[in-house]
From TrEMBL:
<feature type="transmembrane region" description="Helical">
    <location>
        <begin position="80"/>
        <end position="101"/>
    </location>
</feature>
<keyword id="KW-0472">Membrane</keyword>
<feature type="transmembrane region" description="Helical">
    <location>
        <begin position="113"/>
        <end position="137"/>
    </location>
</feature>
<dbReference type="InterPro" id="IPR025273">
    <property type="entry name" value="DUF4064"/>
</dbReference>
<keyword id="KW-0812">Transmembrane</keyword>
<keyword id="KW-1133">Transmembrane helix</keyword>
<feature type="domain" description="DUF4064">
    <location>
        <begin position="1"/>
        <end position="122"/>
    </location>
</feature>
<dbReference type="Pfam" id="PF13273">
    <property type="entry name" value="DUF4064"/>
</dbReference>
<protein>
    <recommendedName>
        <fullName>DUF4064 domain-containing protein</fullName>
    </recommendedName>
</protein>
<feature type="transmembrane region" description="Helical">
    <location>
        <begin position="7"/>
        <end position="29"/>
    </location>
</feature>
Amino acid sequence: MNKKHMMIRFISVISLGLLVGGTAFLLLIGPLDQHQGIRSVVIDLYQMDPKVQRDTLSGTLQIQPDEFATNTLHYINQYMYLPIGALILSAALTVVSLFILNKNSKMSGSLFMFAAAASCFTVIPPIMQVISGSLLLKGENGGRRELKAESR
């Protein structure tokens, strides 16, 4: 196994660990509306909104901060499966890509790129997957095409 593949494996394993950790975190935190810390952050953000501050001063506030936090966190809970599913898909593509790395490096690089697209809402794992994918897609000669002498 060459050094390039070892470096790609190292980067990919770190990326996979971050993806699995993020998925586990999202699965373990449970419903967001039951966490007082998250609820208070949403309320603080709502109260810092300039329009809400103007409406509060004029007495025309249409939704109270506590009700806003409840509605927002309930809405987020309904769609929590989307980021969890994307992280699981990205982790699965990374695992498959690691298994086929030595057999088909171009396919492995493409799978790394798809994994990066699936987890694009995170920051570090997609960067690592794009690096791995681009290194594999460049090929052995660094992306340069060699001109072959024509035989006569």
